[in-house]
Amino acid sequence: MRFWQIGATALAAMAFLGASIPTARGETQLQGAGASFPAPLYAKWVAAYNKAHSDVVVDYQSVGSGAGITQITAKKVHFAGSDAPLTAEQEKQAGADILHIPTVAGPVVLIYNVPGVKESLKLNGDAVAGIYLKEIKSWNDPKIAALNPGVTLPRMPIQVVRRADGSGTTFIFTSYLSAVSKAWAEKIGAKASVDWPAGLLTTPKNDGVATMVKNTPGAIGYVEAAYATQNKLAYAKQINKEGKEVTASTAGVVAAASTVAFPADLKISIVNAAGADAYPIAGYTYILVHQDLSYLKDRAAAKALVKFLDWCVSDAQKMTDGTDYAPLPPEVQKKVQAKLRTITFDGKPVQE
Asked: Within 10 Å of residue 10's Cβ, how many Cβ atoms?
């Protein structure tokens, strides 16, 4: 089995319930599920790791952060992907031993499909919040026009697309809107699943949003930048906290991340960061794993899992070159590796 070959129904049916999953060839299989935000990069990582390790098969199902959190809470997967840190209530439900392992950071972009507009549009926080609050309803609205002088904008309704599922990308996006818009913070807030204004188009996962925007004239939606690149979709430049016009890039994400230090629990927000080069809608994505792996009933599986996670935050970081993801800074890699050394099995560290 390899990445993308397990459907959502099959994943649910697997339900290893605390046991490792042996394959037909006696390999140890590590099952992950969750965020679609990092899925294009995780696909490369999984393929490379499986090729290099004949005794382990890693599989990751892109089902959205919310579904991934549900799976790791129920201990039905070895690890989960989420761009949104667990809330206190979610941590309580999961058993309070969930570790947040940051892997990479990436930008969230506003993709759009505006017929006749060939220029790269510019947006700021006020305009984006207005669009998603359904206060700005047409592409030629004065607030959009003022940001794009010289661009002929059509008098065309804006078709606003949002995620239907619990989504870490939504968490990053709404965290940004909460930081730049008092109205958004008061009416909607920052969550992986929010009570959206009525009248928005809905679809699950990043690839679903990309497809819907691509096929809907007048549409706008938010996705991790890799999905815009893959689908050859136009996306807006953003006006950042310093009033500078910035295009989504790994350099812009690195600039945003450099302004914030990682706390002990490794949960961090880099939205609306200061700095002339900082891209404002960005965030880290995490692998969620239980600190106590005794429930696996298999020390070999626990060891294989920690070895894979250590590889993700070290050697695999080199595979971010040429992608839309920013690697962990070297000093952060060391912090994360130290956190991995706290994972135990039957009361003893998994890493010796």
From this structure: 11
Report yes or no: 81 and 32 within 8 Å, Cβ to Cβ.
yes
With bands split at pLDDT 50, 70 and 90, how would you rate the model's confidence at 270? Answer: very high
pLDDT by residue (tens digit) across 202-260? 999 999 999 999 999 999 999 999 999 999 999 999 999 999 999 999 999 999 999 99
Chain centroid to Cα 170, Å, comes to 9
For residues 242 and 275, the answer to whether their CB atoms sit within 8 Å is yes
| Cα–Cα distances in angstroms (integers) from residue 98 to residues 66, 88, 94, 164, 265, in the given order | 15, 11, 7, 26, 10
Long-range pairs for 241-247 at CB < 8 Å and ≥24 separation? 241/272, 241/273, 241/274, 241/275, 241/278, 241/280, 242/274, 242/275, 242/276, 242/278, 244/276, 244/277, 245/122, 246/277, 246/278, 246/279, 246/280, 247/120, 247/279
- Cα 341 to Cα 296: distance, rounded to the nearest angstrom: 17
Q: Is 287 within 8 Å of 81 (Cβ atoms)?
A: yes
Distance CA 331, CA 334 (A): 5
What percent of the chain is helix, strand and coil (3-state, nearest 5)?
Answer: 35, 20, 45
Asked if the model's pLDDT at residue 19 lies above 70, the reply is no
**Which backbone phi and psi does 254 adopt, to 5 degrees?**
-60, -40
Give yes or no for a contact between 225 and 172, defined as CB atoms under 8 angstroms apart. no
DSSP string, 142-166: HHHHHHSTT------B-EEEEESS-
Measured distance CA(62)–CA(8) in Å, rounded? 9
Six-digit token string for 193:
């699943």
With beta carbons less than 8 A apart as the criterion, state whether 38 and 285 touch. yes
Which band of pLDDT confidence, cut at 50, 70 and 90, is reported for residue 16?
A: very low
Chain-centre distance for alpha carbon 161: 17
**For residue 54, what are its two tokens?**
């004949």
